[in-house]
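dumping this here so i dont lose it
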């Protein structure tokens, strides 16, 4: 059934890809974004664009009233740069915590479902025991991770106080066309840029640090499936004890920086070599999510092969360089 939906952050990497998919399924899509990192030209033509800062909570509320009955808010707008959060944690919290409180208040106007883009990597920290399930202790090391976790807590509180059917998506390192080099999987865009310019990789540390790279198309499909489960009530048992459904979204595969560079070279059909530089302070060594809960409950997969996804990303980066 077609719905009126809002995508906050719908001019960004994941949000605009999601907005495209929602338009394709016939939804009436409204994008709210202040273009801090997003691009106006990424918003689908069939969507209505509203330029607004989500931390202006009164303006957001007024806009929701103006848009009219909204069934779902896909809340992806964020200050998503971990380094910015370290230098300016108050700014990060204004967007990621106050902004989320604003979204919850605006969504309440129409009893809308809120699907929140959270983070597994920045909430669990070091995954020394391999793929981290949702029950892993939450130990954020950055203000960004702390703010995302705080926002999750507000989602749960809103659901308990007002009966909202909200859902938390904890993404791993999302990559694909339109991605920004400053995001959590920024290294993919950086490596893609280097193969296009014919430059070797710059690797910090010994390159054995691992991440869980999940393709944006798979992330978008899972996000919509989670919203559908909230809408049709098939996730009701996950809400029974006053909790919210929380889904890790990742492949469960660890890819080292060295493997990522080798696969990027293969995807681009080139061999440029590597340069090693001093390790960066405080970098997590292993980050990988166990997403079996999402697979089982939502019937989704995260199976886009890395080389195929990297090829699509490099092709997109190439068109952007030419544009
Ligand atoms: N990319 C990843 O690997 C990853 C991993 C985990 C979680 N996430 C989360 O997924 C979401 C989307 O991330 P992305 O990688 O597409 O990042 P992105 O920076 O491309 O998208 C964020 C969007 O939010 C907008 N925005 C920022 N501040 C805003 C504000 N105050 N008001 C309105 N709009 C604002 C930006 O302009 C941008 O369009 C974010 O919530 C991010 O924290 C991303």
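and the seq i came up w/
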């Amino acid at each position: 059934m077609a719905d009126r939906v809002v995508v906050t952050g719908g001019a960004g990497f994941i949000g605009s890809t999601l907005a495209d998919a929602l338009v394709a399924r016939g939804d009436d899509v409204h994008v709210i974004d202040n273009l801090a990192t997003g691009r106006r030209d990424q918003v689908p033509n069939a969507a209505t664009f509203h330029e607004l800062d989500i931390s202006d909570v009164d303006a957001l509320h007024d806009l929701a009233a103006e848009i009219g009955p909204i069934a779902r808010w896909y809340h992806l707008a964020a200050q998503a740069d971990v380094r910015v959060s370290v230098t300016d944690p108050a700014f990060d919290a204004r967007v990621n915590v106050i902004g989320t409180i604003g979204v919850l208040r605006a969504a309440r106007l129409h009893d809308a479902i809120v699907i929140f883009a959270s983070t597994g990597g920045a909430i669990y920290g070091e995954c020394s025991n391999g793929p981290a399930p949702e029950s892993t202790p939450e130990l954020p090391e950055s203000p960004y991770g702390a703010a995302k976790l705080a926002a999750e807590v507000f989602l749960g509180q809103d659901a308990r106080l007002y009966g909202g059917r909200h859902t938390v998506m904890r993404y791993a390192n999302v990559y694909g066309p339109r991605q920004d080099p400053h995001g959590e999987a920024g290294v993919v865009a950086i490596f893609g840029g280097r193969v296009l310019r014919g430059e070797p990789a710059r690797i910090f540390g010994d390159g054995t640090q691992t991440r869980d790279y999940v393709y944006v198309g798979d992330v978008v499909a899972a996000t919509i499936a989670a919203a559908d489960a909230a809408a049709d009530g098939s996730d009701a048992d996950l809400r029974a004890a006053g909790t919210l459904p929380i889904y890790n979204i990742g492949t469960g595969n660890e890819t080292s920086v060295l493997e990522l560079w080798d696969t990027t070279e293969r995807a681009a059909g080139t061999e440029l070599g590597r340069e090693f530089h001093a390790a960066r302070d405080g970098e997590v060594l292993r980050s990988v999510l166990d997403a079996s809960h999402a697979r089982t409950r939502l019937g989704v997969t995260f199976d886009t092969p890395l080389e195929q996804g990297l090829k699509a990303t490099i092709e997109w980066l190439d068109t952007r360089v030419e544009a």
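The pocket of nicotinamide-adenine-dinucleotide is lined by residues 9, 11-15, 33-38, 53-55, 76-80, 95, 99, 117, 119, 171, 173-174, 180, 183-185 (CB under 6 Å).
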